[in-house]
Amino acid sequence: MFPPINEQMDLIKKGTAEIVSEDELVKKLENSIKNNTPLRIKQGFDPTAPDIHLGHTVGIRKLKDFQSLGHQIVLIVGDYTAMVGDPSGKNSTRPRLTRQKILENAKTYEKQFFKILDQDKTEIHFNGTWFQDMRFEEIMNLAASYTVARILERDDFTKRYKAGSPISLHEFFYPLMQGYDSVAIRSDVELGATEQMFNLLAGRNIQREYGMEPQIALTMPVLEGIDGKDRMSKSTGNYIGIDEPAKEMFGKIMSIPDEIILKYFTLLSDLSVTELKDIEKKLNDPQFNPMLLKKQLGRDIITQYHNAEAARQAQEEFEAVFSKNAIPEDIEIIKLPADEIGDQLVRLLTKYNLTESNGEAKRMIKQGAVKINNDKVSDQDMELKEPGEYIIKVGKRRFVKFVI
After folding, report:
1. Could you list the residue range(s) of the whole structural domain that residue 82 is in?
2. pTM to 2 decimal places
3. Omega of the bond prior to 68 within 30 degrees of 0, cis?
């Protein structure tokens, strides 16, 4: 039923950041083969936003690797942990979400999970299933399994405590709740991003307190967003959503810095180690054009979340628009109402969502990133008032046609 240990470990270790510990994982795999019983592989997701982006898929793709090896995937939708908010990597208390908002977000998660995983071989549990029925005595027993000193070993808590930043008591419960999830579903391996290691190790300790063999903690690298600097996040706007239109995904992938092309292939594609080494060799060749690899990456990712035809069309439109200065076929056309004729271009760009703010609109104009009918705009006070059609291009991917 299961491949040999060395084959399993090669696939499991591909792209991972850290495994605690490899020896224990090998023993679990040996027992799995001996008893013909799959390991239970867990990852939790707090539905704090309605959409999953490529950063989320790094862990889900590793779950897919475990699934392909014959193991049981267990997804935890954190409807209760989301009300606390994971403090990992945060310098302040997260805003608390209402349960209604969390459940609304969770509806889209299940659909998006199965763009990657086999639904028939995946368990999904909401952790409210066990937390909502917990008696206070059980909560005290859970709290007694960890000390304040251990909690304050967290780097983020330590920094906030020393800086005098508020730490709400409910935040201390997050790693305990995540750890108890591992008890509830009897996890053998738990996945998380590198910043999640404290929570994963807490799960090991809490499982011991409940008389269980501790889970393996496996972390995956954090994926940078399309800016190549900060982790991919909707809040910073540097994300690629897996439900976005194919052409939007392709355009964003084309904008990533060359320095993270290999990392994107490693974490977001099914390429073999040999194929990844070939890509690394090409990237180190000064004569090679990295844009060719970005197009390959774009086709690969869009085929995964849409289909091959959508990937082909997205590439063709990208090449037509950005290589040949063509206009997108589905450009939005806005007939300016009478009270907006003569308005400043800056305000129009913001009103019609071409820029986030007037300040950003002015910066884009200053940087030469705004064009009207393919001519760069240099005047930040420019007004649109003469009859005609104005094709506005902001940055590399945003178009609109204003008609007066």
Report:
1. 5-220
2. 0.72
3. no
